[in-house]
Automatic annotation (TrEMBL):
PANTHER family to which the protein is assigned, alphabetical: PEROXISOMAL MEMBRANE PROTEIN PEX16
GO cellular component term, pick one: peroxisomal membrane
Protein family per UniProt: Belongs to the peroxin-16 family.
Biased composition (Polar residues): 174-194
Annotated region (Disordered), positions in chain: 171-194
Keywords: Peroxisome, Peroxisome biogenesis
UniProt GO BP: peroxisome organization
Domain of life: Eukaryota
Location in the cell: Peroxisome membrane
Name of protein: Peroxisomal membrane protein PEX16
InterPro entries assigned to the protein according to its UniProt record, in alphabetical order: Pex16
Length: 358
C-alpha cells in the first residue's frame, strides 16, 4: 500500500507540474504570437537546412522529411492553441473536428511515412503506406462530405492563422447576434459583409460627402474571421459527384497502378480523366466562397503536374523540360537553381506524395 501511495503521489505531482507548464505555454503563445512566429520560422529554416547536409539518395532524406514534418506539426499545434485561446474554433461536432485535424496531420506527415516505409521495408512497405494513407484519407473525407456536408474540401483542411496580435484580437472581439460563428449577415450599420465572399463593403447610407469620399471603410468595420468560418457551399447533384470523384481519384489511380503497372498509360489517363471531370462538374456552381475558389484554382493548377508524371514525362516532356532547364541555366544568377532542379527532378518523381498531390 505504501508503494502504491507513493506512485499515486508522484503521478499527482507530475500531473500538477505538467498542467502548470502547459498553462504557462498557452499563455505565452496567446500573448506573444509574433515571437511564436519567429520560433516557427527558425524551426522551418532548420528543417530546410537539413536537406543540404544529407545525401541526395531517397533513403537519406528520411530525417530531413521528419524535421520538415515536425516543423509543420509545431505550427499546427500552435494554431490549435491560438484557436482555443481566442475562441476561433468553428462550431462543429466533435467527430467532425477530429476528422479535420487528423486530415491536416496526414497532409503534414505523408511524405515522411512514405520514405520511412521505403527505408524499413523496401518498395512493398512504401506502397503499403501509400495505400493505407489514401484509403484512410478517402474514408475521412467521405464522412465529412456526406455526414457533415463539408462541401468542397480544401487542402490543408485547416489554414494557418496569422501571427498578428491585432488581427487575432479583432476577430476574437467579433460576436454574432445569435452566437453562431457562421453568421455572415449585416454586423454593423455602416458596413455589410457578403455572405459568400466574406468581403466587407460600405453601405450607401454610410457614404460621406462626395468631396470627402475615400475608398476606406468606416472606422470599426468588422474584420473577416478565419477561412473556416465562411459559409460552406452545399453540394447537390453533379457538383456533389464532382467532389466525390476528387476524393476517390487517389484510390482509383492506385487501383489502376495495381492492375496495369507504373509504365502503363491507363493509370495516368484514368487519373487525368477523373481530375478533369471533377473540375468540370464543380464549375457548374454559381457561387463559391473565397476559400472554395482558391481550392478550385489550386486543383486546376495541379493539372500541369501531369506533364511531369510518368509515363508522360518519360516519353514526351522529359527532353523538353530538361532542355528548358538547360537554357535557363545559361542565364546569370539561375545556374544554381537550374542545376538543382535538374538533379532533383528524377528523385522528386520517385516520391509518390510529391508527384501525385491531391
Amino acid at each position: 500500500m505504501d508503494e502504491q501511495n507513493i506512485i499515486l503521489k508522484w503521478c499527482s505531482i507530475f500531473q500538477a507540474k505538467y498542467q502548470q507548464k502547459w498553462k504557462f505555454y498557452e499563455t505565452w503563445v496567446k500573448e506573444n504570437p509574433e515571437s511564436v512566429a519567429r520560433v516557427e520560422g527558425a524551426f522551418r529554416t532548420l528543417a530546410y537546412a537539413s536537406y543540404m547536409f544529407t545525401g541526395t539518395e531517397l533513403n537519406q532524406q528520411v530525417l530531413p522529411e521528419l524535421a520538415y514534418a515536425l516543423s509543420n506539426l509545431y505550427v499546427f499545434f500552435n494554431d490549435n492553441v491560438l484557436r482555443k485561446s481566442f475562441n476561433l474554433c468553428r462550431q462543429m461536432a466533435l467527430t467532425e473536428e477530429r476528422l479535420i485535424k487528423w486530415l491536416t496531420v496526414i497532409e503534414h506527415i505523408e511524405v515522411f511515412l512514405e520514405l520511412a516505409g521505403s527505408r524499413l521495408a523496401g518498395p512493398t512497405g512504401k506502397w503499403i503506406i501509400i495505400a493505407a494513407v489514401h484509403i484512410l484519407r478517402a474514408i475521412f473525407r467521405l464522412v465529412l462530405l456526406f455526414r457533415y456536408s463539408s462541401g468542397i474540401q480544401p487542402v490543408p483542411p485547416l489554414s494557418t492563422l496569422k501571427r498578428d496580435p491585432k488581427f487575432l484580437k479583432e476577430i476574437h472581439s467579433q460576436d454574432s447576434p445569435s452566437g453562431d460563428t457562421n453568421y455572415t449577415g449585416e454586423q454593423q450599420q455602416d458596413t455589410f459583409k457578403g455572405q459568400r465572399s466574406g468581403r466587407v463593403i460600405r453601405t450607401l447610407d454610410a457614404a460621406p460627402d462626395i468631396n470627402h469620399r475615400t475608398w476606406r471603410l468606416p472606422e470599426g468595420e468588422p474584420v473577416p474571421r478565419t477561412p473556416e468560418h465562411l459559409e460552406r457551399t452545399q453540394l447537390h447533384g453533379l457538383p456533389l459527384l464532382g467532389e466525390l470523384l476528387h476524393i476517390s481519384r487517389p484510390v482509383i489511380h492506385l487501383s489502376c497502378l495495381l492492375r496495369w503497372g507504373q509504365r502503363s498509360w491507363k493509370p495516368w489517363l484514368a487519373s487525368l480523366a477523373v481530375d478533369l471531370a471533377n473540375l468540370f462538374l464543380l464549375s457548374k456552381l454559381d457561387r463559391l466562397n473565397i476559400r472554395e475558389e482558391q481550392e478550385i484554382h489550386r486543383r486546376s493548377g495541379l493539372l500541369l503536374l501531369y506533364l511531369l508524371r510518368s509515363p508522360c514525362f518519360d516519353n514526351y516532356s522529359k527532353e523538353k523540360v530538361l532542355a528548358f532547364l538547360g537554357m535557363t541555366g545559361r542565364i546569370w544568377g539561375l545556374q544554381t537553381i537550374s542545376k538543382s532542379l535538374t538533379e532533383y527532378l528524377p528523385k522528386w518523381q520517385q516520391i509518390y506524395f510529391y508527384n501525385w498531390l491531391q
